[in-house]
Here is the input.
Amino acid sequence: MGDDISNYLNSTKNSSICISIAIVLIILFFMTPLSKFLLVSTVGKIVAVLILSYAFIINTLSAYDVSKKLDVSLFSDSNFASSETSNIKTNIICSYIFSIFILLLILMIAKKMVFVKNINNVNNNI
Here is the structure.
C-alpha cells in the first residue's frame, strides 16, 4: 500500500511540475510580444499543449491506478467521513477534477490557436 501511494504522490508531483512549465509557456506566448510572431508563438503554444497533454495523461492514469490497486470505490461508501481510506478517496476525486481543468485549459489553448489563425486568414484575404 505504501509503495502505491508513493508512486501516486511522485506522479502527481511530476504532473504539477509539467503544469507549472506549461503555465510559464502560456504566459510567455500569449501575453508577451512573442505572441506577435506567428511561427514562434504557434510552436510555443503547441509545446504548451503537448506538455499539458502529458500532465493530463499522467494525472488521470495515476489516479485510476491507485484507485484500482488499493481497491478504493469512490462513491459506494455511505460512511465516507469515518472510512480509513477517506483521505485517499478525496485525493483521487481531486485528481480527477484537476484533470478536467487541465483538459479545459488544453481546449482553450487549441480554440485560441484556431481562432487567431482564422482571423489572420480573413485579414489577409481582405
User: Anything to note?
Assistant: Helices lie at 2-31, 38-69, 86-125. Residues 14 and 62 are 11 Å apart (CA to CA). The mean pLDDT is 83. The chain has one domain: 2-103.
